[in-house]
Amino acid sequence: MKHIYLDNAATTPMAAPVIKTMTETMTNVFGNASSTHFYGRQARAILDDSRHLIAQSINAKKDDEIVFTSGGTESDNTAIIETALARQSEGKHLVTTAIEHEAVLKSMAYLESIGFEVSYLPVDQQGLISMADLKDAIRPDTILVSIMTGNNEVGSRMPIHEIGEVVEQTNAWFHTDAVQAYGLIDIDVQADKIDLLSTSAHKLNGPKFLGFLYRSEKVKIPSLLKGGDQELKRRAGTENIPAIAGFAKAVELADSDEKKLRQKKYHEFKLQIVKGLQAAGIEFEVNGEITEDNLQHVINIWFKGCKRDALLTNLDLNGISASAGSACTAGSVEPSHVLTAMYGADSPRIEESLRFSFGVENTSEDIDYLITQLTKIIKKGRRKN
Question: What's the cofactor (predicted)?
Answer without folding.
Answer: pyridoxal 5'-phosphate
